[in-house]
Design a protein that fits this description.
CATH class of the largest domain in chain A: Alpha Beta
Largest sheet of chain A: 7 strands, parallel
Strand order of the largest sheet of chain A: 10-9-11-8-7-12-13
Structural class of chain A: alpha/beta
Number of domains of chain A: 2
Shape of chain A: globular
Number of helices of chain A: 15
CATH superfamily of the largest domain in chain A: Aldehyde Dehydrogenase, Chain A, domain 1
CATH topology of the largest domain in chain A: Aldehyde Dehydrogenase, Chain A, domain 1
Radius of gyration of chain A: 24 Å
CATH architecture of the largest domain in chain A: 3-Layer(aba) Sandwich
Largest interface: A-B, 69 and 69 residues
Mean pLDDT of chain A: 96
Oligomer: homodimer
Helix content of chain A: 40-55%
Low-confidence stretches of chain A: none
Chain lengths: ~425, ~425
């Protein structure tokens, strides 16, 4: 099938999904969950092929683990769809309503975004998850997964399309680019006529490629070079706990802490305490000169360290004299994701909240909370690090737009 | 000055504007209005140069008129800034606030978008207007105007920068690319490091160039191929008035009606009435066969007519059998701008409102109302025809994003 045909089919599905009521959509999601369970053997067989190919090509253990499906993981995918069915439907919500001087009744009403393209890597569970979120919000989705997972993705999409048809829905509410070549991906990113929004999910490299090559509007879900600033008025025990949590609870995620900023006045009291605690997880500390005075075992940080998202048991340590200087450092090196201050000083806290430019700014809490589920959204399509459309954790609402419904009584413009 | 330097200066102005309070911003806007008035002679002299060059190059009357400045037009620019000062400031608004199970207090707070790039053509009044809207919302702006207006734009920007400095503001809250070459424009559209959003304002060609070449997120302000559907249950007198208004009140604007869709059951009663009324303005009608049966003087419409935004005294006429068919035709050919149905039938009206995919959908009113001032926004940066971020008339709110301010008491993630 050509890209053109895929685009046309998505556009044909669009008006059907746009006006589908919540009850029908939820039935389809529950039915899709059932089909995944029923067809577990079929999906696992396809996944075996991907796993074999991956091993032959010398894929690393970590990647193989992300690629692998098991009956439990497929049950997890099905459970994900059931949870999405249980969420309330943002489509149709009247966001606001007013009557200006011209006497028109204006309603701003939430509607689906349109056809959504999702470009991702070798995690087949994203296939079902992305479908669930897009379908719930009335958006047809076109998926471009990694070549490593192509057999698994094809099988999952085939099962979901069967489920859609059995419920009287257009099967093309979900489609997969089976051709995973770079050329096709490049052409896909310029399919403005059919695709309304592109969402890349994956590594920084993947996201940069999409941002630089797409002519379709992109929602950038990005990397997180997250800082925690321990202020002179911090509760040091709280600070140790929060930094330990944000650095080590899960190292490979975008909301993990990568850099510590510490006030000079407390560095000698705080850094040895922290170093001791982080030694439990063998975290490497890379500090500036003042930090290394407090903890001599620390290695020397280079300019490059301030801008690095390690995703590893490494933490950079920068010493500052004031909250102002901390904010300046963070605004220079952060990626607009999550930043925290630990302080009992109300004035410093408010200044930090106001002046730090990031999606989520915390006082006395771990950066690890930047997450759609922790925020109570019940779902997450990604964490936006751009300022247009959606910022921070994106739930169902981020997959909607709005339109104006205007009711008149014959008004003309004078 | 290099693009890099311009970008850096905008980024330096950004944190200052981000936290500037409303009172200070409004003082600056009023002061800028004063400076424009005081320096009228200086601006007019620069404009004379652009007008002379334009005449030499054989610029058309209409374009020369848009380029021309007069003391009245400069007073209009100043008055525009005063009006923006009087609007309420969306920045700092707490959009929502909640506490999920983890006990964190989460506030979603409105913040500026960042550095805004605006690319426009030969209308120097846009220079002051864009500055006013961006400054009010705390966003530094970098302008790239047309080469035809470069002297006028330079003079206006110089005056505004003087006003900014006199109020203790960074002058680089507004900057102009004085180099109006295509190469510099192309490089400007890839300045992702410094520019957060690009807004093109102008012709369809300009907008397409920006969409296709920018790697920075773009807010597309687009063309309007707007339809009015006159239903079988329409009040025909109302329909004549609304179509007459939407077609002829101002022909060169994006919310003018370009195409009439008419129900076959009333075409013989309605079309001759309409043709007579439109003859007052010598509107050319281009119809399908059924429409031409009702008004034999009508010329024949081609496939191309259905997709054309005439911006002229021309109206295409398509006959349909049902509301369903009207919606199908409109969703195929419209540009997502403004669409209307004229009907007394509630069911048809609701179906049309729900199923037509456009920024503004009207029942019994002229499409000409799609406008930030008519909507009561008090300002307008453009009319978005995309679904991401902002749709329809964009007021000050469209120039903002949000951040999450999160207050904890030591929470870590389990």
């Amino acid at each position: 099938m050509t890209l053109e045909q895929i685009g046309q089919r998505a556009k044909e599905a669009e008006p059907v999904l746009r006006v589908m009521d919540r009850k029908h959509k939820d039935q389809v999601l529950l039915c899709a969950a059932e089909y995944l369970i029923q067809d577990t053997a079929f999906i696992l067989k396809a996944n075996d092929l991907d796993m074999e190919n991956g091993k032959k090509r010398g894929m690393k253990e970590g990647l193989l683990d992300r690629l692998k499906l098991t009956p439990e993981r497929i049950e997890g995918m099905a459970e994900g769809l059931r949870q999405i069915a249980a969420l309330s439907d943002p489509v149709g919500e009247i966001i606001s309503e007013w009557t200006p001087e011209n006497g028109l009744n204006i309603k701003r009403v939430r509607v689906p975004l349109g056809v959504i393209g999702i470009i991702y890597e070798a995690r087949p569970n994203v296939t079902a998850d992305a479908f669930g979120l897009c379908f719930k919000t009335g958006n047809p989705v076109v998926l471009r997964g990694g070549s490593d997972a192509v057999h698994s993705n094809k099988a999952i999409v085939e099962v979901l399309q069967k489920a859609l048809e059995s419920c009287g829905c257009p099967a093309y509410a979900i489609q997969l680019l089976e051709d995973t070549s770079r050329e096709t991906a490049a052409a896909f990113m310029k399919l403005n006529q059919y695709i309304d929004v592109l969402i890349p999910r994956g590594s920084a490299g993947l996201i940069a490629t999409v941002v630089n090559n797409s002519t379709i509007p992109v929602i950038e879900t990005g990397s997180g070079n997250c800082h925690i600033y321990v202020d002179e008025d911090a509760d040091l025990e709280m600070a140790v706990n929060i930094v330990y949590n944000a650095k080590t609870q899960r190292i490979g995620v975008c909301n993990a802490c990568e850099s510590l900023v510490v006030n000079r006045k407390i560095k000698d009291a705080f850094l040895p305490l922290l170093a001791q605690r982080l030694s439990e997880k063998k975290v490497e500390l890379r500090g500036d000169e003042a930090a290394r005075e407090a903890v001599p075992s620390m290695t020397e940080a280079s300019e490059e360290d301030w801008g690095t998202e390690y995703l590893d048991y490494i933490l950079s340590v920068k010493t500052v004299d004031t909250t102002e200087e901390a904010i300046g450092h963070i605004n220079r090196y952060n990626t607009g994701h999550s930043e925290a201050i630990i302080t009992e000083n109300q004035e410093h806290a408010e200044k930090f909240l106001r002046e730090v430019d990031a999606a989520a700014v915390y006082v006395n809490a771990s950066t690890r909370f930047t997450d759609g589920f922790e925020f109570g959204f019940g779902a997450e399509i990604g964490i936006s690090t751009q300022k247009l459309h959606a910022r921070g954790p994106m739930g169902l609402e981020a997959l909607t737009s709005y339109k104006y419904e205007i009711r008149g009584t014959g008004q003309t413009r004078g």
